Amino acid sequence: MQKDVTERLLRGLYSAVLYVLTPVTVYHLIWRGFRFRDYFQRWNERYASYDEPAGPVDIWLHAVSVGEVNAAVPVVNALRQQRPGLRLLVTTITPTGSERVRALWGDTVQHVYVPYDLPGAVSRFLGHFRPKQALVMETELWPNLLFGCRDRGIPAYILNARLSARSLRGYRVLAPLIARVVCTLRRIGAQSQADGKRFVALGAPRGNVVDTGNLKFDIAAPAGLDAFVAGFRARARQRPVWIAASTHEGEEAAVLATHARLRRRWPDMLLLWAPRHPERFPRAVEQAREAGWKVATRRRDGWPGADDGAFVVDTLGELMAFYACADVAFVGGSLQPVGGHNLLEPAAVGTPMVTGPHLHNFAEISKRLKEAGALEIGRDAEEVGALVEALFDDEAERQAMAAAGRELVERGRGALTKTLEMIAADIPPP
C-alpha cells in the first residue's frame, strides 16, 4: 500500500509540474513553427483531441523522429509481412519524423503525433486508439504514457533501448519516479550489454532486460542504390566528393572551412551537405553561395552539375543513398555535445567516416567502428578537416575503411530476430 501511495504522490507532483508548464509547450510550438512551418499544424494531436473515431489498433509503435523511425523500419516491415492484416499505429514527435512515416508506409499504417505527457491527454490517446501492445523506440521514458499502459493492461516494451552514462546521470533527478516507470515495462531490448546495465542501474529488474543488439545493424540498402549512384555520377562526373551529414547549426562553419580547404587541393571537389534539421536547408544554400560556390539542391535541381561546388540534400529519406555517392563522410552532431548520429548508414554502403569527439549517444558503435578501422575521430574541427583531407590523399586507406565498415555491419546483424522473439508473446493473434 505504501508503494501505491508513494507512486501516486510522485505522479501527482510530476503531472502538476507539467500542467504548470503547459503554456511553455504552446510557446515551443510557435517558436519552432517560425523556423519550420509544419509545427503550426495538427496541434490537436499534441493534446490528444481527435475529430474522427478510431477503432482499436493491434500495435502502437512510438518513434521520436527520423532516426528512430529508420531504426523501426525492419521491425514494422517484418510485422507487416508476418501479419498482413495487422493494425499499426506509428507516432512521432517531430514533423520530419511524421514525413518519414508517410514516405515509408503511406496510409497502410495510422499515424499521429504522440501527445504531451499530460494525464488527460494520455488518457484520451490510449482510450481513442486502444492499443493491445506498445513498442517504444530507444529511450522514451514518459511516465504518464507508460503508467497509463500498465493501468490499462497494455504490455509495453522498449526496443533498441539505449541509455548513455550522461542520460543515466540526468535521470537521477527523477530517480524515484523513473525507477517505477521502468518497472512497468514487460521487456527492455537493449542495444548493448552496457546499455542494459545502465537500465538496471536506473531501476529495471535485471530479468526484464534483454541484450538484443542494435536494430540499426539490420538496415537494408535502399532499393535501386546502384542506379541512384550511377545517376549521380552521370551528372556530377568523376569528381572527388565528400558529404557533411546531419550537421547542426554550430558545425556549419567547420563544414565551410573544410570544404574551402579541400578545394584548395582539389578545385573540382564537390560537397554534399545534408543539415540535420530541415529549417537549416535554406541557410546552408545561402552560406555555400556566400563562400563563392555554385550551389544546387536536390528539390530544385535533382542532381549536381559538373560545375557545382556544393549540393544541398534538402530532402528526407535519401541520406543513405547520398552516403553511397561520396568518397568520404563527415557525420555531424559530433563537434558539439549533441552525442553524434547514426554511423551505421555510411558503414553499410561502404563510405569511410570521420567524426568529431562527441559520440556519447553512439559510444558502443563508434568504439566498434574505430577498432575495426572504419572510423576516424578528430578532436576538434581543425583535426576533422585534416582527417578528411588525408583520406582523399590515400585511396587504399579509403578502400580498407569501406571494407571494414561493411564487414562490421554484416557481423552485427541479428537484432531484428531477437527483437521479434522478445515481443512475440504479446503480439495480438489474428
How would you characterize the overall build of this protein?
The protein has helices at 2-20, 22-35, 43-46, 66-82, 95-105, 119-129, 143-151, 165-171, 175-182, 193-202, 225-236, 252-265, 281-290, 298-301, 319-325, 344-348, 363-372, 381-392, 395-412, 415-423; strands at 59-62, 88-92, 110-113, 134-137, 156-161, 187-190, 209-211, 241-247, 270-275, 295-297, 310-312, 328-331, 353-355, 375-377. The protein is an alpha/beta fold and 430 residues long. Strands 3-2-1-4-5-6-7 form a seven-stranded parallel sheet, with helices on both faces. Strands 10-11-9-8-12-13-14 form a seven-stranded parallel sheet, sandwiched between helices. Strand 2 (88-92), helix 5 (95-105) and strand 3 form a beta-alpha-beta unit.
Any descriptors?
430 residues, Rossmann fold, 14% strand
CATH superfamily of the largest domain: Glycogen Phosphorylase B
Query: How far apart are the first and last residues' alpha carbons, in Å?
Result: 38 Å
CATH class type of the largest domain: Alpha Beta
Kindly state the mean pLDDT as a whole number?
A: 95
* Tally of helical runs: 20
Structural class: alpha/beta
Helix proportion range: 40-55%
